[in-house]
Amino acid sequence: MILKRFYDDTLAQASYMMACETAREAIVFDPGLDTDIYLQAAAAERLHIAHVTETHIHADFVSGAAELARAADATLHLSAEGGAEWGYLIDADRNVERLRDGDVISAGSVAVGALHTPGHTPEHLTFLVTDEERGAEPVGAVTGDFIFVGDVGRPDLLERAAGATGSMESAARDLYRSLESFLSRPDHLQLWPGHGAGSACGKALGAMPASTLGYEKRFNWAFAEKSEDAFVSKVLDGQPVPPRYFAEMKRRNRHAEVPPPIRDPRKRDPKALAGALAAGATVIDTRAASVFAKGHVQGAINIPANKSFLNWVGSIVPYDREIFLITDSPNRDAVKAIARSLRRIGISRLGGYFSADAVAGNSSSPARQEQVPQLSVDALRSMKRGTAQVVDVRAAHEWDAGHLPGALHIPLASLPERISELDGSRPVVLHCKGGGRSSIAASLLQARGIPDVANLEGGFDAWEAAGFGVERDRSK
Predict the structure, then answer these.
(1) Domain 2-254: CATH class, spelled out
(2) Which of 13, 64, 220, 409 has the fewest CB atoms within 10 Å, counting from its CB?
């Protein structure tokens, strides 16, 4: 059997290709939108992609399953489990086979059995893979968002991201039962999960690319919880705020909607920037936070082009507006790469990009410049209590482990909807763990017209390292 893993660092998302060496037929699991990588990998191995499938309706990226199946002239296999309310809504004329628990997909000697594992989503399938040339028992499982390395898929997304009020406790109980049923599988079973560290589809994902069921039984917290009630409480506690774009991805992927191709981004005249902002466009400055803080266009949001770029764009950028980029990269291909990555989360309304140097140095550009003040932990500590609003934008589990006295907790993904909670008459000091997320938050507040904003230099880590007081939630 041939096994290939494809990993997208920008989404912390894994997809897989498995093939029979004799028949040269392949199955692709959970493909992303960049379908060329699978077609090229198949061609390099002289394989024909005969089947394309996915474990569930994804919330964190645009699925490439339907597009890959069309391009490869392959059969698309999608779950028929979970009920009509949250299942797929695919056109009847598509070449789709619906999978139920116990169904098998065959590619030569590679047999893939569908196992219904609800919890993360109602329709979720895990795929048990058997290499029949080696034996009659499954060698491994493509677990999608069911079992990760060190964690399990979060069961709260339908309620918190898709509006299914009251569903997360019942989903957590479904997940517990799915895990209990899976325990009977042999310890040597290899596990190939759908995400790695950094994904918002869980709260404690490990960085290892694969695991075994035996290893997870020993070291994954979820298998240590023998009480269903205790498991439900723990799996729902401390989950990160789901990025706002998750609901949009769920809707699109239920219908297998594919965003239109993005044309090569056009470099724009600096004079056009002020007009774009005035028209309500979103301007994303992709430079490093430290560079942005020293000087940037008023109204721009700073989301550095790093591994977390798509997560934060999807969390705070609205989908109904045109987007422009500001970049300090002289390489046009780098800008194209950003545009392609945005399409992976369904953003295709890209109006072009501006050179950071041209915008800053062109006297004819009417765009105004501003800075993000950096406040030291010593300066914050010396302030009179209540002078400034200290806002902690970290995740819930970080807050519970320790936070600055008197701080207000607003996770970055929640900030766009909770800006009204801030007192406009007092300065705002934002912080996270080290300064990255709070820099994004500071730029967002400035873009929303809050002028007196500062970023805490070094964040919570610097405060704690200085030996200053920290409060903790004793109930956790």
Answers:
(1) alpha beta
(2) 409
Q: What is the pLDDT of residues 337-350, one digit of tens each?
A: 999 999 999 998 89
Give, in degrees to the nearest 5, the angle at Cα 337 between 331 and 338: 100
**Are 154 and 120 within 8 A, CB to CB?**
yes
Q: Check: CB of residue 367 under 8 Å from CB of residue 270.
A: yes
Which residues, 6 or more positions from 207, have their beta carbon under 8 angstroms from its beta carbon?
149, 196, 197
**Whole-number Å distance between alpha carbons of 308 and 296:** 21
50, 162, 175, 432: the catalytic one is 432
Instruction: Retrieve residue 78's tokens.
Output: 């999608």
What are the extents of the domains in the chain?
A: 2-254, 272-370, 374-465
Assigned CATH topology for domain 272-370: Oxidized Rhodanese; domain 1 (3.40.250)
pTM, full prediction: 0.92
Kindly calculate the radius of gyration of the chain based on its CA atoms and give it in whole angstroms.
24
Whether 256 contacts 66, CB under 8 Å: yes
Question: What are the C-alpha distances in Å from 345 to residues 220, 314, 315, 319, 325?
Answer: 30, 7, 11, 10, 16
pLDDT recorded at residue 206: 86
**Cα–Cα distance for residue pair 158/166, rounded to 1 Å:** 9
Which band of pLDDT confidence, cut at 50, 70 and 90, is reported for residue 257?
confident
Q: What distance in Å separates the CA atoms of residue 370 and residue 476, rounded to the nearest whole number? A: 41
Do domains 2-254 and 272-370 share one topology? The answer is no
Residue 140: its H or E element: strand 140-144
Is 20 a catalytic site residue?
A: no
Q: Tell me if 120 sits within 8 A of 153, measured CB to CB.
A: yes
Q: Find, among 290, 469, 284, 459, the residue nearest to 376 by Cα.
A: 459
Question: For 374-465, CATH number?
Answer: 3.40.250.10
Residue 69 identity: A
Question: What gap in Å lies between CA 182 and CA 160, rounded to an integer?
Answer: 26
Under DSSP, the state recorded for 261 is P
Query: What is the rounded CA–CA span in Å between residue 97 and residue 79?
Result: 9
pLDDT digits (tens, 9 = 90+) for 412-461: 999 999 999 998 889 999 999 999 999 999 999 999 999 899 999 999 99
